[in-house]
Amino acid sequence: MRQKKATGYGSCVVGYTLTSQSSQSSHTPSVNASQEGGGGAETGPHTAPTNDTMSETAEALAANQQSRRNITIEITNLTNKYCLLDPKVYLDSGNCHSPPQPTVRPQKTEVCNFTKASAKASGAVGVLTYDLFEKDSNGAQETLAIMFSVPYDYNIYKNWIALGIYPQGKECNEALYKEMYNNKEQNGFKREEATGSGLTFEGSSLDIKATMSPMGRAIMKVEVWDKFFSPRQHQHY
């Protein structure tokens, strides 16, 4: 059974959507999405919280997880004019443990966690998207997509990661997950087995860089960069 819910987060974020689908196969793991804000000093109504008061590190969040199959995703926005808005999550199976932050502002880092369902032979598999809101144009033209797979059975499967940028409006659903996990032709995204080595997707305006560990309690670190280090290219969706 698939479930879908949307929750409004104010004027800059339309909503956070979570979709899940139960699966009986061991390679279609359960997933859990979540974000836990760290403690810190209080802030007044006119004081913007610092990054330290809004998030914790991936290692700190992962250390509190009891599940043998889960993934903690740390997203760092290193751009100067893009804000990550309106997160959506498709969970192939599982529960939401710590949801993604509604926004990832420039020069900020946020974390979330996806974990297997309890008492099930499943892992943590799904896809997370954010709209890429550009301040100069006052709108979002593209969507960042992050696919993750932490399987239950390592005798058959391995951890996988995929990064992509799609036109804004790309639905975060089962079709997107299957496209990024299964498609041999990687149009609009790049996919690799997770070994801890770096993976880079070069978009027309931004570069997405990430690493992911090969463990059952996996950590993924994602960085969103302005195009400082690579020439601007024509992107094919």
UniProtKB/TrEMBL annotation:
Residues 20-52 are annotated as: Disordered. GO terms for molecular function: channel activity. GO terms for biological process: cytolysis in another organism; monoatomic cation transport; pore complex assembly. It comes from the Eukaryota. GO terms for cellular component: pore complex. This is DELTA-stichotoxin-Hcr4a-like.
